[in-house]
Amino acid sequence: MYRWYYILAVSSNVWKVRNSFGSEAIRTEVASKVLAIAKEHNIYIQSYIDDELLVHSETEFSRLYEEITGAKAMYVGDAIYEPQKGTNKLLVVEEPERMTEVIAILSQRS
User: Fold this and answer.
1) CA-CA distance, 49 to 85, in Å (whole number)?
2) Is 42 left (phi over 0), alpha (psi -120 to 50) or beta?
3) Going by C-beta distance under 8 Å and a sequence separation of 6 or more, which residues neighbour residue 103?
4) What pTM did the predictor assign?
5) Do residues 26 and 89 touch, judged by C-beta distance below 8 A?
6) Residue 66: what are its φ and ψ, rounded to 5°?
7) Is residue 21 pLDDT above 80, yes or no?
8) By the 8 A CB rule, do 65 and 14 touch?
9) Closest Cα partner for 92 from 67, 55, 51, 66?
């Protein structure tokens, strides 16, 4: 079983990690910070921009998400780490034993 967490932006320097999501858009500068942390720590993260699901590359997590939601991922490589505009949401998917570490990493950086 995997754990799914959404990143919710609160301001340009602060974000909250939670297992549900709101309707607030995540500004480009905040998304860039979160995505840079994900890249640095090899955290699986995917993004929705203009209702397009953006993923670095195909993985077990991306395939599972596509299967569950019916969404079709666009595999964009390292471009995922350099958003050109705000994102509707960021989603982290990890094994339960790693999710505690991931939450701590993201919480320390907020």
Assistant:
1) 8
2) left
3) 5, 17
4) 0.76
5) yes
6) -60, -45
7) no
8) no
9) 55
Distances (CA, A) of 106 to 51, 60, 75, 96, 102: 24, 22, 24, 16, 6
d(CA 25, CA 45): 16
pLDDT digits (tens, 9 = 90+) for 58-80: 998 899 889 888 999 999 999 99
Q: Using the 8-state DSSP alphabet, how is residue 18 labeled? A: E
Which residue, chain included where needed, has tokens 């699901």?
53
Phi, psi of 2, deg, nearest 5: -105, 160
Residue 11 has pLDDT above 50, yes or no: no
Q: Are 27 and 8 in contact (CB under 8 A)?
A: no
pLDDT at 26: 81
The conformational region for residue 51 under phi > 0 = left, psi -120 to 50 = alpha, else beta, is left
